[in-house]
Amino acid sequence: MRPRSSLALVVAVTLLLAGCASSLPLDRALGISAPRPAIHFGTDTFAFANESRSKNRGKPDLFANWCFVMARGVTQFHRFARFDPSAPKLSRAAYAELAREVTSRAPWRAPLPAAERIVIPGYASLYEFSRDEEAAVKKGLHGRFWTWLQWTNWRVVFPMPGAQQERVARETLEELRGGRPVQWLVTNLPKVELNHTVLVFDYRPDDRGGVEFVAYDPNDPDAPDVIRFDPGERQFWSTRVHDTSVGPIRTFRMYYGPLL
User: Where are the alpha helices (DSSP H) in 104-198?
Assistant: First the structure.
């Protein structure tokens, strides 16, 4: 098979696997008032950071390469856990086991009813829980090795047509209107700077006819990222992504189905 034919096949398969979810055209979607954020930054997010290896060389307790697990974990706590600050606190081992139980559930599964959720006693939010019980929460996270082997990661090496990027924007808006945060794989390859994941939880139309997506970045627990989609160019821009220069990027949805 010729290289050009191979690339065309890869792109075609990628578009097919991107899903056939029905969503409104972008201009109509942006004409609808934005709902409340799917989650609240600094409340429903982790208090600790996924640490950079290049910026923390020699650190003995380095917590690195957990970004995919952490972004996915916010969704899992959002869907499968609830917090009860009035209940007595537990031991570190018990909290680690609860975190493991939450993050063992597939993130694409429907949210559990309140009565069936895993109860985290003694804390009011994921932020408070992960701040005070950082060691236990980190111990309860799992699956880092398999995120390196996630078969959809290969998408970052290929250029993507504008239609595919616009589909990501439209489907993300649809999910956010339904109260569901959306995990993205983001990259600016071939520039070796960004091969990362964020969790989009809010959006706002801008005055240029585009949309700014607001995201939790596991590398930065203190401020959300902003990624802009330009409908004219059908392209995403890293308007404000932690440790990343402003410029064009490609985005792909993650963890919204058994194969994706």
Answer: 126-132, 134-140, 144-148, 162-177
